[in-house]
Every structure is written in structure tokens, then in C-alpha cells.
């Protein structure tokens, strides 16, 4: 005992001298306590050979910017081990003496599923004397012992001592949050990502129809692609697909589901034969009891089982109501996306437009043309393997219409390239065809954008890639939610996610003049003022053709000025020109009055706006003089005071003009 006391006293004297020389006022601030001989610390920060225990202690105190909080020393091989800035614990180490400050180097006690907070420290080890860990059980039942709060406090009786308020047996049930749980006993609404059964067996993919081929199912009708898709796409059985949320089995991969209204979610597994097994999907903690008599908005997947999912059926929750005359009708409900979705967004590394603004990247119109494996992309218009299996509707429209900005009289301009795109319904990211017969197509490595806030501008004339937040038309009227206009007879290809509040300007119709929206219940489209994005050098561009800047020529090359594409916007009588899109109603009346025979002869009204109206791209502020109708008076425009049209004074180009 005397030798031991002498050793500690000598060490204390050495440390006190060091502390005073470093202007530390109190020895208690760095008091070391000895551990039983034969024990040492793990997670050693540094190790050296020192001639004595005292020198090892000095090295610990001299650590910068703070002394280490523990050290171990062995006299036989002079090993000095320092512990700093990390958690540690004592283990058997023969011949070692170990010392520690009044700190807790061991990890603090845990209570599974409990929420943890800290008082007097930030949770980084070692914990200081008096540092407290607070445990809160967020489950409605609370802790199993009935307590509301439990704590663990680092105390100074001995190093690494935690004073806990709970027995080791205390429990806290896990809080299960939808969608990774069941809201109802049967769990037909479950759309989580568990893909193994309660016995640990891996689930099979639903789209492979593991329970039998599509032809063997007693339901129908089928979609047979054997003649249009040489790549061998399986037949889709619409009756079976209707059992799945969103009416497509492909997007559910091999996740547990309850497609046949069994006792709870299940899946197919492969054994000596194809079998079914239940999955261990817990009930949601905050699930409400709802019986069959409720009138809440829902999206029952069995509605209209013979209608393909891509026809906008069941696109959102809906309900029945009694309308005028006592007739029962239905309407979509205003159900917003869950707030948690925004928090799950990952931060990317790309810069727009060479990046994705969403996980699927359907809005991507960049120039990447090779896959993740480095294979070169094939041109889309080459159709190397027939019509892709997820291009719908296949019979009514050609496959080119699946591409953004392709609904023009020259769609080949939009698909005559080999850039990565995501034009179909099912693919998870932009992709392309490759010259490899086994795979036929591959995903491209398109990064997410650094800034996931979509730019408030368009890259192309039609702007179908625009996914910004503008929600008012050029007439100043607020846009109405798109779901108000998605009925059975209106088939719109929705390339971004739509919830009840989605009233942002979009170009779902390939409107010639860019993004638009419905501003009245009568269904009148109102153009939106979505400008072109700045050029690469950061400048603006007033005149574009197909989205590309063209040089300004402020003169006409012929007497009528048919090819004039300058920026003159004041008439010869001094009237300011009205933007062409603001005078859209006048344009329609003008075309219908003067070109009625052409329209009856088969020329579409939209063709006038798309091809005849102007050589360059129109946009909401475009108010430049043009002569799209071969007017003998030359370039003209509508007057800003809405008092009809007036002609513009455009000079004839001279030989010196560019």
C-alpha cells in the first residue's frame, strides 16, 4: 500500500508542476485516477517508448490542444500508450498501469429504439464528468417500465462510470412509419421495400409472373407486344396488373405486396416449386381504424381493370359524389405529397442542364451519349430493337411522341440524336439503346444537380423539359390544378409527379409556344411567361429558332419581308407592338376568318402557329414585327392598345448588311 501511495503521490506532484507551468489554476481540472494493474485501453491514439511512468504522464499532459484523457504504461518494455479524442474501454493487458481523467471513455448505455439527446456535452467521446444522456421513447406506449424519460450520467466515482436510471431489461417499441408498415390488417396499401419473407427467403419479381404465364391467367385483356417488340417483352395481363397500386407490376419489383387480398402482404418464392410466403410487415404505430363504411378519398386499384394504367386512370386518390340532377360522379381529391419526400432528396454534383432534377430524370435534355459502362448510345430514330416495351399508347401514336418536344411537324429533329433520355414509363433513370444484343439498352450516368431547385427558364421552344414553379398565366390568372382536367376522355402524358396541388405551368400537350396551364374551368389554355435560359456565355438571346440563338438581321431581304426575324417592335405610326401570345384570340380569329378553306382542307389550326405564323420561336414577350401571312403591306403586328394591326417600317438590306 505504501509503494502504491508513493507512486500516485509522485505522479500527482509531476502533473501539478506541469499544470501550473501551463497556467492551469486547479489540479482537479486534470486529475487522473489509477485503474487496477493488468488493465489497458484500446483504440490507442499514439504509442511510444518512455523511460518511466512519469515521462509517459508528461507526454499525456503535453498533448495539444488538450491533454489526452487516459494513458497506459508497461514498465518491462517501456510502452507508453495515449488515448485521445475517441471512445475506448479497458481490456486485460498484462503488466500495464493505466490512468484516466474523471471522464467516461466507454460508450454510453443504450436503449434500443429510444431517441437520444445530450446535456452538458455533444455526444462525442469521452464524456465529461456530469455529462448526461437523455432517452425518450416516442412510441405511444412509452418505456416498458412506465417511465417517460430515462437518463445516464457520467460520474466520478471511478473512470467510465455511468449512473443509469433504468434496468438493462427496459424496452421501447419501435415507431413504424408508413410506407414501411401496414395501415390495415391486410396491408393491401403497403408499398414499402421489404423483399424477403418472414422465413428469410428472397421474393421473386412480380413482372415475371412467377405464378404462371400471362396466357394462363383467367383475367384479361392482354397487351401482346410480340409483333411490335422484337426484344421479347412479355405479354401484360391487365386484369392481373390491376391488383397493384399504380396498376403496374414492374414498378413493384420483388417487394412484398398483398395483390390477392390475402391475410397480409406476401410474395412468390422459389423452392421445389413456385410458392407463396407471408412477409413480416409490422402495423404502423399511428394507424387509424377505418371500416368499410368510410367515405375518405382512396385510389382503389381494381377500378376499371380493363383499362391500361397509362391512360391516367387511378392517377390520384378520388371519391364519388352526387352531382347535378342527382347523378353520381367522381372527382380527384386534393392530396399533397408527404413532406418527408423533400428531405430524402440527395444532393448531386451536376450543373444544369447536364444533370437530373429528379430521380427518374424524365426532364433531362442534356448531351450525354454514353452509358454507365462506357458504351456508345445508338440514335433513337434508328429503332434498333423495335418500339420499346414501355412506350405507350402504342397503337394511337408513334413512339416518337414519348420524347419531350417531339410533337411537331418535324419530330425527327427531336429524336435524330443519341443523347441519353428517359422517354418511357418505367425506366428508373435516363438510358439509351446500345449495340449489344443481350442487354439492348443500358442506363446512363447522369448525376443529380447540385441545385435541385428547377430553373425558371426553358431550354427549348416548346419547353417540355420545364419543371419549375411558375403557376400564373400571362393574363395574370392563377393556374388551376391539373387534376381538375384529367378525365377519362383527356389523355395527357404526365412526365412529372402530380399531386392535388400541382398547378404549375407545364407543356403536357406539346403546346407550340411553351409551358401553359388551365386558368379557367372551361379548359382554356393560358401561355405562361417562361423565358429562355441564358446562353452559355450568360447573355440573353431575343431571336431563336428551335431553341437556338440566331444572328440578328434588322432589315428585310425581300420586299414583303417574309424572312424578317429582327427585333423591331414599334409600328411606322409609333404604336408599340402587342406580344403575339397576348393577342392569341385575335390570331385565332384572323386564321379562322382568312384560312377557313385551308383548315377544312386538312391543314390543322395548330400548324399555322407551329410553322406559318413565324419563322422563329414565339415566347410570351415576343412582340416583334413579322409577316407570317404574306401580307402585301410587309411586316406588321397588333397594336398594344388593341386597336387592330399596324405595319412596321423595315428597311431593305443593303450589300453592306451582314
Explain what the structure shows.
The structure is a single chain. This protein is mostly beta strands and 658 residues long. It folds into five domains: 100 residues, 3-Layer(bba) Sandwich (Hepatocyte Growth Factor); 71 residues; 110 residues, Plasminogen Kringle 4; 109 residues, Plasminogen Kringle 4 (Beta Barrel); 116 residues, Plasminogen Kringle 4 (Beta Barrel), CATH 2.40.20. The protein has eight helices and 27 strands. The strands form eleven sheets. A five-stranded antiparallel β-sheet has the order 1-7-4-5-3, covered by helices on one side. It is extended and about 110 Å long. The N terminus is likely disordered.
Name a few traits of the molecule.
658 residues, mainly beta, four-stranded antiparallel beta sheet, Plasminogen Kringle 4, 5 domains, 15% strand
CATH superfamily of the largest domain: Plasminogen Kringle 4
Kindly name the structural category. Answer: mainly beta
Whole-number count of domains: 5
C-alpha termini separation = 104 Å
